[in-house]
Write a structure and sequence with these properties.
- The chain is of the alpha/beta class and 477 residues long.
- The protein contains 14 helices and eleven strands.
- It has a seven-stranded mixed beta sheet with strand order 1-7-6-5-4-2-3, sandwiched between helices. A four-stranded antiparallel beta sheet has the order 8-9-11-10.
- Helix 4 packs antiparallel against helix 12, helix 12 packs across helix 14 and helix 13 crosses helix 14.
- The protein binds pyridoxal-5'-phosphate (PLP).
- Pyridoxal-5'-phosphate binds next to helix 6.
């Protein structure tokens, strides 16, 4: 048995060296996984020892065992789903957060963490052009940010009907309908389920050609209440923004609670060039976004904002004699669904200080420019086409099977299969990572650029790679 206390020095020094080896561009690791499921299971499924082992040896072993199973999703040529990397200051602050190991549930057990979150909340509201009086919570991601915001929504809508939901529960309460577009993100659907509001009460309303919720459909649906209207700031396929200036006043006239899913799109408010996409969004009742996507803070980090702090607090706050509640300071458990929790404000604090206001705007605009270049340049290669030209950092392209002549009856399905095949070949090349989607019934390759490190050279390299792959498929019979 190793009863001897182990020091922190050696394992942390080993971890630092491994991290730097992983993060340095010179390593030029394949972007996609190189090891398969069976290999990873074989390497990692060790029998659990009776006695412990040396900490540094465990770290070195771990790094060997996971080799090929760490996707370079934090790197500059990862364009799958909507995933960001980590800014150096944010990553370093995140390491310290683990070293300090604060329980940031209350001021009494993590004073600096509470103050940092207070400061970060103010900075975020300012950058995202949200009302300065809004309350907020730093949660694990946009998923739990939806839950936090919609808890407040549920409280407020039912309180107006003299129903105390925290006390009575939902059985027998007036039903709440959720009005949204057909492009709603699944995380909102899951939040509705967790809150007991019931998926069948979600009404998916039609969109226009630009992916925006149609005004006439909303007006018709609002005739029955109470309702939560969920609008999108950036949907996951084409980055569509609902028309907030038009739709929010309509929803408010009908007494609805308006929630904005801005997992990544809300960051456009930080850019003078793109801010117009969010005109009128500040009149909503709640907003969610992520730190771990476009801001490039390590996982896990999301933000919830609520215009009515009283409704937010009433839905979550709890008092107990063994806890030490602050009178002046911020107790996160008044605003957060978690009890014990990580001091996740430190990483955001560091990220925002590393970038500054200009740096945030620049990150948002630069990644949009790279997304635009990737989509238009890949789309103009022989055998490719642009499906959606990015207005922000999301776009779509599609590939045509060169061996199926349209005049000889090549079907759209052939090109669907071919598009998925090209995506797989790009992943196999190790050069870049893209994911597929079905948009308006057809397969497409999503191009999503969120990483602070992506450069013009990365764009050139990826376009050349796709060109090579398309060329090789034409040659191959
Ligand atoms: C990623 C995403 C979410 C969910 O966010 P998590 O941080 O993964 O919980 C919600 N909505 C949209 C539009 C997203 O892209």
């Amino acid at each position: 048995m190793t009863e001897k206390p182990q020091s922190f020095q050696a394992p942390l020094a080993a971890a630092l060296q491994h991290a730097i080896n992983h993060l340095t561009p010179e390593s030029d690791l394949p972007v996609a996984a190189a090891a398969d499921l069976a290999t990873l299971r074989k390497k990692l499924s060790l029998p659990l020892d009776e006695s412990g082992r040396d900490a540094t040896e465990i770290i070195d072993d771990l790094v060997k065992a996971v080799e090929g199973g760490i996707i370079d999703s934090a790197g500059p040529r990862f364009f799958g789903w909507v995933i960001g990397g980590s800014l150096p200051a944010a990553l370093a602050a995140d390491w310290l957060t683990s070293a300090w190991d604060q329980n940031a549930g209350m001021y009494a057990c993590a004073p600096a963490a509470a103050v940092v979150e207070e400061v970060v909340g103010g900075w975020l509201k300012d950058l995202l052009h949200l009302p300065p009086t809004a309350s907020f919570a730093l949660v694990t991601g946009c998923q739990m940010a939806h839950v936090t915001c919609l808890l407040a929504a549920r409280h407020a809508l039912l309180a107006r009907r003299q129903w105390d939901v925290e006390k009575e529960g939902l059985a027998g309460s007036p039903p709440i309908r959720i009005l949204t577009s057909t492009e709603i993100h699944g995380s909102t659907v899951r939040a509705i389920r967790m809150l007991g509001l019931g998926e069948k009460h979600i009404i998916g309303l039609p969109i226009d050609a630009n992916g925006r919720l149609r005004e006439d459909a909303l007006i018709e649906a609002l005739k029955k209440s109470p309702s939560i209207v969920v609008l999108q700031a950036g949907d996951l396929n084409i980055g569509a923004f609902d028309d907030f200036a038009k739709l929010i006043p309509i929803a408010k006239r009908h007494g609805a609670w308006v929630h904005v899913d801005g997992a990544f799109g809300l960051w456009c408010a930080a850019s003078p060039r793109l801010r117009h996409l969010l005109t009128g969004a500040d009149a909503a009742d709640s907003w969610t976004t992520d730190g771990h996507k476009w801001l490039n803070v390590p996982y896990d980090c999301g933000y919830a904002f609520v215009a009515d702090p009283q409704a937010h607090r009433a839905s979550l706050s709890h008092r107990a004699s063994y806890l030490t509640h602050a009178s002046d300071a911020r107790d996160q458990m008044d605003w957060n669904p978690e009890w014990s929790r990580r001091g996740r404000g430190f990483a955001t604090y560091a990220a925002l200080r590393q970038l500054g206001r200009q740096g945030v705007a620049n990150l948002i605009e630069r990644t949009c420019d790279h997304a635009h270049a990737l989509v238009t340049r890949i789309g103009s290669l022989e055998g490719a086409e642009v499906v959606w030209e990015p207005q922000i950092n999301q776009g779509l392209v599609r590939f045509r099977n060169p061996h199926k002549d349209p005049r000889e009856g090549a079907s759209a399905t052939d090109n669907d299969t071919f598009t998925d095949r090209i995506i797989a070949e790009i992943l196999a090349s190790g050069e870049a990572f893209f994911t597929g989607t079905t948009w308006h019934g057809r397969r497409a390759m999503r191009v999503s650029v969120c990483n602070w490190q992506t450069s013009a050279e990365d764009v050139d390299r990826v376009v050349a790679c796709v060109d090579r792959i398309l060329h090789a498929t034409r040659e191959r019979k």
